[in-house]
Specification:
Layout: H1 2-31, H2 41-76, H3 81-99, H4 107-127, H5 134-149
Length: about 160
């Protein structure tokens, strides 16, 4: 039951949180650390709109590779932060290579995309990736305990 709840709620929540974190990592460097508060209200609306659109774009681009990675980590029980960070870096480099036809963009865009890949991976790990495969291993150990706890079939007729 816990495995079903994890697959239905926690993992999609981790994906959405990772998309929002990556969108912030992509937009943040271009907005600046502290935008002036006396900006036009339309500025804040445009910023929120850009943030939402960026999160949706990240989600649509990353969904299939993330799903393959998530299935692999869940079934193999790979919950290491290093594996998730390496997958985030690999995903960022693959995105850069595929979207720019092999030529890398300038330094600011490249840095923002790599940071977004790392943020995506680490936020997903914080929300859902730490427990990857943990419930399946608990179920397997429970079955092993039951099998070892069974009494041997001894005949009292001798």
């Amino acid at each position: 039951m816990i495995l079903v709840l994890r697959l239905v709620f926690l993992i999609p929540l981790g994906f959405v949180a990772a998309c929002l974190g990556a969108a912030f990592a992509l937009i943040g460097p271009f907005v600046g650390p502290f935008p002036p508060l006396d900006q036009d209200p339309l500025y804040w609306f445009e910023l929120a709109w850009a943030f939402g659109i960026q999160a949706v774009q990240i989600g649509s681009v990353a969904f299939l590779p993330w799903a393959c990675f998530m299935i692999a980590t869940e079934f193999l029980g790979l919950g290491s932060i290093l594996i998730h960070a390496a997958a985030g870096l690999l995903g960022a480099f693959a995105y850069l290579r595929l979207s720019y036809d092999g030529a890398m963009p300038d330094g600011g865009v490249r840095t923002a995309v790599i940071a977004a890949g790392l943020v995506f991976a680490l936020v997903y790990w914080l929300v859902a990736g730490r427990g990857a495969g943990r419930e399946r291993s608990r179920q397997r150990e429970g079955v092993r305990r039951i099998e070892t706890a069974k009494p041997e079939n001894t005949d009292a007729k001798t």
